[in-house]
Specification:
39% of the residues lie in helices and 8% in strands. The chain is mainly α. It has a 3-stranded antiparallel sheet. α3 crosses α4. The longest helix is centred in the last third of the chain and has 15 residues. It is elongated and about 65 Å long.
Length: 127
């Protein structure tokens, strides 16, 4: 007998090819789930989670408490980024998660520049 505690089984191994995890589905378009896309679970999806694969259930548990980026989900699950993107696409189609696209760089605001403009306007017009 072995007195060592049972080690937790890996979700993926050489015995379980990655295409089995994704049911043979292809990658979604690159712009659909960028590394910085934020994902979160929909409200009240715990009952639907029973029918998910172990990997998809793990992803859903990670994003239940709030938003995580696609890259963070891949890091926490130790799954390749492409596999995580496929799982997320399946879960979004099923209505289990929501995805929020990252803000494009051109639309990001530099707070220091806005504060400098505001200070200049106050100095010029005395607000």
């Amino acid at each position: 007998m072995n007195d060592e505690p049972d080690q937790e089984l890996e979700l993926t191994s050489a015995l379980v090819p990655l295409f089995v995890i994704t049911n043979g589905r292809a990658l979604p378009p690159d712009n659909a789930y960028e590394r910085t896309t934020l994902v979160s679970a929909q409200e009240g999806v715990s009952a639907s989670a029973r029918a998910l694969s172990p990997e998809a259930r793990q992803v859903l548990e990670l994003v239940t408490e709030g938003f995580l980026s696609v890259a963070e989900v891949a890091a926490h699950t130790h799954l390749p980024l492409g596999i995580v993107r496929i799982l997320l696409a399946q879960m979004e189609e099923s209505g289990l998660i929501i995805a929020r696209k990252p803000v494009p760089r051109a639309e990001r605001v530099d707070r220091e520049v806005l504060n400098a403009v505001l200070d200049g306007l106050k100095a010029r017009f005395g607000a």
